[in-house]
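U., I forgot to send this yesterday:
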Amino acid sequence: MLSETQATAPRTTTGGLAGLPPVTSDSLLALIAMANADPRPDKIDVGVGVFRDAAGQTPILKVMKKAERILLETQSTKAYLGSAGDKRFAELIRPILLGPHADDERIAGVQTPGGCGALRLGFELIATANPNARVFVSTPTWPNHRPLIRGTRLEIIEYPYYDRDSGTVRFEEMIEGLGSAREGDVVLLHGCCHNPTGADLNDEQWGEVARFVAERRLLPFVDIAYQGFGRGLDEDAAGLRGLLAACDDVLVAQSCDKNFSVYRDRVGSLFVKSGSADATARAMAHVFQRAREMWSMPPDHGAAAVRIILDDPQLSADWLVELDAMRDRINAVRRRIAAADPRLAFIGTQFGMFSMLPLRREQVLALRERDAIYMADSGRFNIVGMADHSIDRFVAAVVEALDG
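Result:
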């Protein structure tokens, strides 16, 4: 029996949860929290990565509301679907994503919890197949890419990508930077609407990248989270499709969160291509095993609603109309900002929701303090993160910062 002293004495430990090191907060999540806490009524938050309409809202698409009503009325069970999730959802995404490669039996897909789930699942597959593979990542890239890769303990190598002075791709330096890649190494590529820069490869550059990775037997892993937000569904997938034509092995992380505006429902997919149908089947067996270990099965609601839309010709047509409207707003705001000052003209030549302003960190912090304008310290901002009535104030504040 414990003595009174033994029962009340504080316990010390050198292991267990008490030994965990502190965690550095995600900078973008911290930025969102700061913006939410700012009481100024005219604050502008262009840090968070969601589409906002002219009124500054992120509405649910009308076609999504229709699909959810159908789902509510027709869904007869909440029984498990299994690690593959909604198989029909993945089948319907194929032609949108893969185009002329949709019938290729060497390509297989699976539903995932958003694009993050697809990326992590793909890197888990790579780490299983080749734990010595190195992952070449653009500088800059989406901030969560590196943590997702580090979670699988694969080595990360950076390659040059963006010139902040001109707002263009450093293509020759990119190819030179990839020159040290060895057979079996991975090249992570943004399929379209590069996040955070908005600077995309053109068709000729995509062709050269496809030839380069094929000749050197590298593994391209394409993250395509914004299909339809740049030039159009087919145009935005052209680079990916060129890689599928040139390479035996390709991985694709796809997201519906943006183009169906279902951010919190986490709707995505991973597609795997290998040199043969048998090899792809073996790879997918590993994919399903890893999916079972990580999340067992993906959430159903969002994918089921997307499946209902894509399975119905009228609802699909309605979705395309709303998708076109979102893309038109992105491009219209880009043109409006680009026309405001010659130093911002590059924004009109880029694509998607994000660009990087040529601002130093102290200038970004000054905008935050003085003007209640919230963006990442790097100058990355969401083109459609503000209402129409806020654009002029935003641009005026940025120009004032550029003037010094």
